[in-house]
Amino acid sequence: MPRVDCRAVTAGNPYLLNVRDLIRHPGEMRERHLEFPAPEHLGEGLVAVRAGTELDVDVRLESLHEGVLASGHVSTRADGECARCLEPLSLPVEVEFGELFAYPADEPFDHELSGDLLDLEPVVRDAVVLALPFRPVHADGCEEIDLGPGITLITADAPAPVDDRWAALKGFTAGDTNVREES
Q: Which of 78, 96, 172, 177 is the most buried (most CB within 10 A)?
């Protein structure tokens, strides 16, 4: 079987880490700091981490009897649009992750080591994508929104219009307790 130069493999995929020195050595620990441009687009929707955006990953690798525990922190920026005013928006993304990469065994695990290599890509991607807001808005509020002619915006301060069909219930209050008891 031909030998593969792990440095060449890990250089092509920045998420791959060589953990040969940790395998089957419970109690051993290593910390690594990775900085690289995101190789692919992370997330969909109004904001996402665009391909080429810098990812800053601090990872702690701990050897256990079951495998290698990877825990860490990811910092990056997500760009997109504000959900309220649709103006460009850039948000910091700070997220922590932790996952056990099991040794290959008969029972399947979510994440397994592949030889001497640990692939952080699915763990980092899932953590970053789940940390993205569904409805991102500007932190300091949006500028005045220009509504088209004939459109009015009902704010929380303004009284809501009352439908005439509900006018009979206007005099009813929650304190009215005239409930008939049935025997």
A: 78
Measured in residues, the chain has a length of 183
Beta-bridge partners for 34: 57
Q: How far apart are CA 131 and CA 121, in angstroms?
A: 15
Number of neighbouring beta carbons within 10 Å of residue 138: 15
Model confidence pLDDT, tens digit, residues 127-177: 999 999 999 988 877 776 667 777 766 666 777 677 788 877 777 777 766
Q: How far is 48 from 44, CA to CA, in rounded Å?
A: 6
d(CA 65, CA 99): 14
3-class SS of residue 70: strand
